[in-house]
Amino acid sequence: MLREQPVTALELSAIRERELLPLLRSLDGLDLSQFDYISIHAPSSFSAENEGWIFGELYKCLHRGWPVVVHPDTLYDRSLWRLFGKLLCIENMDKRKGVGRTVGELNYLFTEFPEASFCLDMGHARQVDTSMTEAYRMLKHFRSRLRQVHISEVNTQNKHDHLSFVSILGFQEVTPMIPSSTPIIIESVVPEHQIGAEICRVQRALHAPAEQVEAS
Amino acid sequence: MGEPSYPTLELSRRIGVQWPNIESTRELSGRKIGELKQLLLDLDSDDTSIVVQGSLGRGEFTNDSDIDWFLLVDGIADPHHHDVFLEADKRIIAPPVGRERIFATLVSSHDLIHNVGGDDDTNNNLTRRLLLLLESTPLTGVITHERVVKNILKRYLLEDRSFWRVDGPHIPHFLLNDFARLWRTMAVDFAYKLRARSGEKWAIRNVKLRMSRKLLYVAGLLACFHPHLLLDDPEERKRVYEEQSFQPEIIDIFHSIFSDNPLDIVATFLNKLGDDATVSQVFRAYDKFLGVLLDPKQRRHLEELPEAAADSDPIYQEARKTSHRFRDGLLDLFFGEKLYSLTRLYGVF
Question: Is A213's pLDDT higher than 60?
Fold first, then answer.
């Protein structure tokens, strides 16, 4: 699906718990040579009882050196997840969650996980604060931890959607603060034939003057 | 639990005085807000916030205070929001606030954010919007409350062309003009209510206008002067204002200022700008005013005092003198050495 696209960063996602084992078992058979950067997204929701085996399976991938992106509300036994060290990549949350939504809430987490890196989810940050001030604050406070960026529009039903005109305008207000070498992971859910168009929209969001992209 | 700490208390400790009524109302407010938060806990949702304004929002609650509140909606409109409002109303058991009950209602963020100025910016909308900045506390939905406040600030600060002029004084005129509009509106509405309500509660309204309403304007004015005072060096100021990242930064700075209540905003500035005599005069007068509101006898007396009897009424006359001391202290502050030029240029015409 991505072979024809100018894409060099990939996040292998097991958002649903049931997707984790099939994904991990398929890793050795995947041709990932196209990608300069790879991360793996842990399931976004699971119970404390299942934490042990999920952690164990992910920990087996440690030797690959891929960051493991986690939702902070799934970190029950913190001593376990600290074992990932710098490869633990904590993502900011959408407005439904009670943790990790703001700089204040993330600060607490990074105190608990001092080595952890940061995945800025622009869609979540914009949903929490459409003024984009919170996204700005996250970039200001956690820039040195920034490992990757998630981008998509998080709609009112909390679903990841394609970027709209208004979300592009919002993102443009803070994207100049993102170092150009930061891997950008597009989380927009679009039909296959719209992948190219969505990449263009993301480029527009990342490079403030939209007309430059349109002209190229 | 540790010792309480807030700018007004820190200021009183620094100059070695006590303002017991300020401390009492602050404590009562904290307790009441804690109780209400517990009562409303299960009414929390992603896109609503139950917000208190008025004396409770300012941290000046007394046992006889009304509870001015509204349900702020920042999301998809849902008929069930009305049920949330009714349920919250039942739990808060707010006595009717004024005859219009303007604060016990359901408010959409769209009007607050989009209708700044113009025909659709009604008296209520203006008041709600600016009191949301100056004296609001969320009982539920902290994230929603913050989002709406920041978006209102974004409109005032980023759409103000003169604020961003490289050679400008960096005074947010758009915001400052609206604070002035709010203050004058409250003053005009005092006369309106006097007529509409045949003088009912004239004296207490008069004293509140001279004190707590004026305090709101003072806090707003000082906040608007802050960006200019923040960076003394014109070269440094120029460099900072040219950086694009300063736009969200300034929203964050103002959000942080308005996270404090008006008395604390004034205390923070007076700590830097006022001499001890001015500080003492302003806060002693305010403390005395709160003492009147805390005393049920004096409060009821002022609530029932007819306008015709005011000139010879010792309680009203004392309250009036207190308001003059408050005013004179503020005049010393705003026309003192540090704020004179800003007040002359932006506080008069």
Answer: no
Cβ-defined contact of B247 to A96 (cutoff 8 Å): no
pTM (two decimals): 0.90
> How many domains does chain B divide into?
1
Q: Confirm if A87 and A61 have CB atoms less than 8 A apart.
A: no
pLDDT digits (tens, 9 = 90+) for A34-69: 999 999 999 999 999 999 999 999 999 999 999 999
Contact B147 A130 (CB under 8 A): yes
User: Is A4 contained in some domain?
Assistant: no
Partner-chain residue, chosen from A129, A176, A177, that has the shortest CB–CB distance to B150: A129
pLDDT of residue B94: 58
Q: Is B147 close to A96, i.e. CB distance below 8 A?
A: no
* Contact in structure between B216 and B135 (CB atoms under 8 Å): yes
Q: B196 and chain A: CB distance < 8 Å anywhere?
A: no
CB contact under 8 A, B245 and A132: no
B252 touches chain A (CB under 8 A): yes
3-state secondary structure at position B15: helix
Which chain B residues are within 8 Å of A101, Cβ to Cβ?
143
Q: What phi and psi, each to the nearest 5 degrees, are found at residue A149?
A: -125, 135
Q: Give the residue numbers spanning the domain of A186.
A: 9-215
Backbone dihedral angles phi then psi of residue B87, each to the nearest 5 degrees: -65, -45
In a domain, residue A1? The reply is no
